[in-house]
UniProtKB/TrEMBL annotation:
The keyword ATP-binding does not apply. HAMAP family: DivIB. Keywords: Cell cycle, Cell division, Cell membrane, Membrane, Transmembrane, Transmembrane helix. The chain crosses the membrane at residues 28-45. Belongs to the FtsQ/DivIB family. DivIB subfamily. The keyword 4Fe-4S does not apply. GO terms for biological process: FtsZ-dependent cytokinesis. This is Cell division protein DivIB. It is a single-pass type II membrane protein. Gene3D superfamilies: 3.40.50.10960, membrane protein fhac (3.10.20.310). Residues 50-118 form the POTRA domain. The gene is divIB. It comes from Salsuginibacillus halophilus. Cell division protein that may be involved in stabilizing or promoting the assembly of the division complex.
Length: 267
């Protein structure tokens, strides 16, 4: 005999109604929540709270921050979430002094532009001052310096822009330890040596070298310079090999040049 208790249908109906009511209430709450969220979303996007209030530029030393924001095309009042940051980034990176840029949206309606600038590797002397030369070889005509610069060498005679770019690329590979010891560089071309350059170092030594592979030719300068008396007249040649050439006074009183090999014969 089956002892299992049978619940009459009339006793089960109230429980089923209550269960259905709870389910309906949950669905209603869910629908209302989604509805109000959509309303809030629409109101937010139509309000000033979704607009750019301030632009902040970080890392701009050579380029005016106002110039960066102008080129970006982003301005206060623009919609914060519809900005084309990829296009703005590309426009900023077209500035000569900018190597790379990134754009981020922050809290409090702020757009932050972080830029990484190229290094000033040299200066070009002009009649009214000195123009910075970047490691890309580009000259910043709008950043004139009135006084004689001390943070990078001054270059003269580089009338060919491509040769200047090649030389600045070599300077960038040379490293600050040696570049900071260079005071002036002159393109001193001859018919036999069209890429010859003359350097005046801060320690008083004059160096002759070549633009191609300059970073390799000059890398031994600290060691070689330690063997030279800066007060002794002469020229240090650093090409495929290195030697110091000093003037020699002959018996008739005329000067001639004597050669002191430091690392072999020059080409």
């Amino acid at each position: 005999m089956n002892d299992e208790k049978v619940v009459p249908m009339e006793d089960r109906i109230p429980a089923l109604k209550e269960q259905r009511k709870r389910r309906a209430n949950r669905r209603l709450i869910l629908y209302l929540s989604v509805f109000f969220l959509l309303i809030l979303f629409v109101v937010y996007f139509q309000s000033p709270l979704s607009q750019v209030d301030k632009l902040q530029v970080n890392g701009a030393s050579y380029t005016e921050p106002e110039r960066v924001t102008q080129v970006s095309g982003i301005a206060p009042g623009d919609h914060l979430w519809t900005l084309d940051t990829t296009e703005a980034k590309s426009r900023i990176e077209e500035l000569p002094a900018v190597a790379s840029a990134s754009i981020s949206r922050g809290i409090f309606r702020t757009v932050t532009i972080d830029v990484e600038e190229r290094n000033r590797i040299a200066y070009v002397r002009q009649s009214e001052g000195y123009l910075p030369v970047l490691d890309s070889g580009d000259i910043l005509h709008e950043e004139r310096v009135d006084h004689s610069p001390s943070d990078a060498p001054v270059v003269y005679g580089f009338t060919d822009p491509e040769l200047l770019k090649e030389f600045t690329a070599e300077l960038a590979e040379t490293g600050p330890g040696i570049v900071n010891r260079i005071s002036e560089v002159t393109h001193d071309a001859t018919e036999e040596r069209p890429f010859q350059i003359r350097l005046f170092m801060n320690d008083g030594i004059e160096v002759r070298s070549q633009v191609p592979d300059f970073s390799e030719r000059i890398q031994d300068y600290p060691t070689v310079a330690a063997e030279i008396d800066p007060s002794e007249p002469g020229v240090l040649f650093m090409n495929q090999s290195t030697y110091f050439e000093a003037p020699v006074v002959e018996d008739d009183g005329e000067d001639s040049e004597g050669e002191s090999a430091l690392e072999g014969e020059s080409d």
